[in-house]
Structures are given as structure tokens and as C-alpha cells.
């Protein structure tokens, strides 16, 4: 269960399992050097490229059967903002209801994977909302940074690290909320980026959204077998992909 739930934290993974796989290539053709150069304006405002999918008729009227679930993601948001040089941020927020002891065990420690050579992880908050309305905030000293297991088995991956967040006060009936930000400080290829994203199918996610912010003067290629984009043009662009479970 721990590995299954950890796989839903796609803020640090370019490739994930899911309902509808969406592959995005972002290319900016430079007149000076004639190469692909994905970028984002740091000064412009944002427009919307919107691509979404809705399943069923109503996420409220026909909720899935949760009686045998350990937990359910009420909301999962990933927002990616890319700069012209290939640096950027990937912000993930989640709201998770804990329905059984197995859910407590699965979410007791949140592993956040990143590359220490060119990335940084910031934790905005990790908090637990109790049924009585009280809130327990996980303090910074509950976070440990350590090399990932793969780095011990394969030294070539020695820059792969994980931050382990020991969630304070989590119990059955609680709601876990967190926001984490992955910062790309140095791009793998200067002036370029790419990603592959899939909506989760191994746990119940009632409301899931992916937003990708890029400038309006670049070409975004969205490859998906299920989702088609709706585009609104302005000075820069946001690609939004959403799905509701019903």
C-alpha cells in the first residue's frame, strides 16, 4: 500500500500510471540558432489553453463506493510553470481523506524524490484536519533528507535524494493536506523541457488537475489518446488537464 500511494505523488515523476496518458512537447524555434527552445515569458500575463475530461454525470450524485478504500484523494492539483531557460517549478497540492488504518500507514511518511544536482524541494505545508475542525501542522524538523534507495544500489544515481516527511497526528477520519514545490534550478537541456503525465487509476481521485504554464509564442504539442485541447489565446498560455471521478 505504501508504494501504491507514493506513486500518486506525481509532482516528482515525469512518467506515471493513469486513466488518460497525456504527452506534452513544448518547442520554441529560435531565429538566431535554429533549435527547439521551450520557454516561458517571465514578464507576461497568462492566457489559457484548456484541455479537460469529465466522466459520468456528477461527482456528487454518483460517488464511487468507498466502503473498502483505505483513503481517497478529494483533490489533487499539479501546476507546472516553466521559464525560458528551461528552469521552472512544479507545485503539487493534495487533500486526502483517511478512511482506514491502512490509509494511515500508507500516508504516515511522505517520500518526495528529487535530483540534488539540479533540483530543490520546498514544503509549503503538511497538515492534518481533524473531524472536530482542529488542525495539526507537521513541523520542519519532521523532515529528513537522505539519498534514495536506488543510489545505494546504483551509484550512478547518487544525486537522487528523497525528503521523508513524517506526518504528525494522522488518524482514521482525518484529512491530510499538503503543498510541495519542486524547483528545477538547472535544466537537463538548456532551453528545453518535456513531460509525460497520466491521471491516476490505482487509487480513487475525485478531482485531479494538471496545469502547465508556458509563454504564448511557443508551440505546445499535446499527444493524448483520450483528451483533446480547448485553446484560449492571450499573451501567454496555460494548458489545463482535468478529470473528475464519478
Describe the model.
With 246 residues, the protein is mainly beta. The chain has one domain: Immunoglobulin-like (Sandwich). The protein contains 3 helices and 15 strands. The strands form 3 sheets. The chain has a 9-stranded mixed β-sheet, with helices on one face. The longest helix has 7 residues, at 101-107. The radius of gyration is 19 Å and the shape is globular. Residues 1-20 and 27-61 have low confidence and may be disordered.
Features:
246 residues; mainly beta; Immunoglobulin-like; nine-stranded mixed sheet; three-stranded antiparallel sheet; 15 strands; 7% helix; globular; disordered N terminus
In short:
With 246 residues, the chain is mostly beta strands. It has helices at 2-6, 101-107, 149-153, and strands spanning 21-27, 48-54, 71-82, 88-98, 109-115, 119-129, 135-137, 143-147, 160-166, 175-184, 193-198, 207-215, 219-224, 229-232, 236-244.
Q: How many distinct beta strands?
A: 15
SSE-based structural type:
mainly beta
Give the overall pLDDT as a whole number: 74
* CATH class term: Mainly Beta
What is the molecular shape? globular
Radius of gyration, in Å, reads 19 Å
Number of helices: 3
Give the helix/strand layout.
Blueprint: H1 2-6, E1 21-27, E2 48-54, E3 71-82, E4 88-98, H2 101-107, E5 109-115, E6 119-129, E7 135-137, E8 143-147, H3 149-153, E9 160-166, E10 175-184, E11 193-198, E12 207-215, E13 219-224, E14 229-232, E15 236-244
Parallel strand pairs: 2-15, 3-12
Antiparallel strand pairs: 1-11, 1-13, 2-14, 3-4, 4-10, 5-9, 6-7, 6-10, 8-9, 12-15
